Every structure is written in C-alpha cells, then in structure tokens.
Amino acid sequence: MVAVFFAYFALVSIAAGVLTVSLKNPVHCGLALLALLMHVSGLFVLLNAEFLWAVQVIVYAGAILVLYLFVLMLLNLKADERYFHSSYLYFLGPAVGGACYVLVLLLRSPYGGVKGDVPAAAVLESGDTHAVGIKMFSDHLLQFEIIGVFLLGAIIGAIVLAKTPKSIEDVTGKK
Amino acid sequence: MVPLSAYVAVSAILFITGLLGVLIRRNFIIVLMSVEIMLNAANINLVAFSHYLESLAGQLTALFIIAIAAGEAAIGLAIIIVVFRGKISTNVDEMNVLKW
Lengths: 175, 100
Hints:
The complex is a heterodimer of chains A (175) and B (100). Chain A is an all-alpha fold. Among the domains of chain A are: 1-78, Up-down Bundle (Four Helix Bundle (Hemerythrin (Met), subunit A)), CATH 1.20.120; 123-164. Chain A has helices at residues 2-22, 26-46, 50-75, 88-108, 120-126, 128-136, 141-162, 168-172. In chain A, α1 (2-22) runs antiparallel to α2 and α2 (26-46) packs antiparallel against α3. Chain B has one domain (4-94): Helix Hairpins, CATH 1.10.287. The radius of gyration of chain B is 17 Å and the shape is elongated. Chain B contains 3 helices and no strands. At the A-B interface, α1, α2, α3, α4 and α6 of A face α1, α2 and α3 of B.
C-alpha cells in the first residue's frame, strides 16, 4: 500500500516539476508548482514527518506560492514567444544523460550508515511535532535564532526594495 | 517497504529538472520557481535519510530550508518588482546593467 502511494506521489511530483519548467504561461507554471509542492508534502507523510507536511502546506503552498501568483498578477506578464534560452538544446542532452548515469549509480548504492538514536516507533509514540520541538529547542537552538534574525532581515530588505521611491522634488524640498 | 534509493532517485530527478529550469528559462519568475523545485528536492533527500537513519536532524534541516526559501522568495520577488519598474521586462537576458 505504501509503495502504491509512493509511486503516485513520486510520479505526479516529477510530472509537475517538468511541467513547471516547460509550460509557456507563467500562471500555469505557478499552478504546476502548487501540484508539485502538495505531492512532495505527501511524500513527507509517507516518511513519518507530519510536522513538515503541515509546514510545507502552510508555508510553501499557502504563503510562498500565493506571493508568486500575486507578483505574476501585479506584473501582468504576457507569455513570451521564445520562452526558452536560445541554446537550450545544448543543456538538455547532457542533463538527460547525466540524470540517467546518476540514477544508475543511486539505485545500486546500498546506503549503509550510522543509525541515530530516534527510531520511528519512538517518534510515533509522542508524535512527530513533539519530537521535532524537543530536538529543535535543545540541540539546534542557535540555528533557530539565526533563522529568526535572517527572516527579520529578509522582511526589512523586501520592504525597502519594493517601496516606491520618492521623486527628487519631494526629497530636496523644492516645489 | 520502499527502499531509500527510490526516494533519493526521485529527489535527483527533481533536482535536475530544477537545474535545467534555471539554465534554460528566460523569465526571471520561472527561474525563481525552479530554485524552489531544487530546494524541495533537497528537502525530500533530507527527510528520507532522516527517516531511514533514525535521526531527527534531517527533518530540522528541512525545516530551516523552508524558512530560507520563504526569505529567498520575498527578496527575489522584490528585486523583480524593482527591475520591472525601471524596464518593462522580466527577461534575464535583458538584465545586464551590472554585467562587466
């Protein structure tokens, strides 16, 4: 059953990613990106990361994507006639070949590694949100604070950049 | 049981798709969307390893990546608005004022 869900989420997210890159109208690209984000959040549920699922839906699909669509509506773009770079075929061939090579290497790899101390059963006992919260506010507190300062800087930067500049007459006080 | 390599393969395909989008699209907004695809591919990878190696550090890193993606989208879209105000275009080939 898990394999069926995995196949669905994986195939649809890959198809939505390809559509995001290849569609002509930017609004259609945004909607394909929405489908990609939703299906990636489904993959998170399969991996026992319910908190990340919620964050993905709320922050990515709810905030970031709305911001993209808002700017698209604001700019009122027309679809370009030539919307790919002029020499895109030179990129496409090596990318597909490289992807196949990487896939063969990945599927053959055994991925042995040192196991951590939080097995899935222990996470499910108290809930993923609880486990992530305890971990974040004990071991990763400094990163959390840094992210807070970073987001504050990003907000101030976005406001300063997007503000309508005053005209010269207003600044110098002349009529 | 889905093997870990399947998740890593999905992540690799999505990452290469996003990289291609950054390289071949000419609309700045679509380029930013492709960057989001690449960040999502990295998130899938981190969460999959976090699940299979039984550690929560991967999930936390994915959480921080989502926060950074939010900041990146805000700043990138503000830059697009500034560029669009001066020159009615979002084509990356025409934004060459700072080119040496």
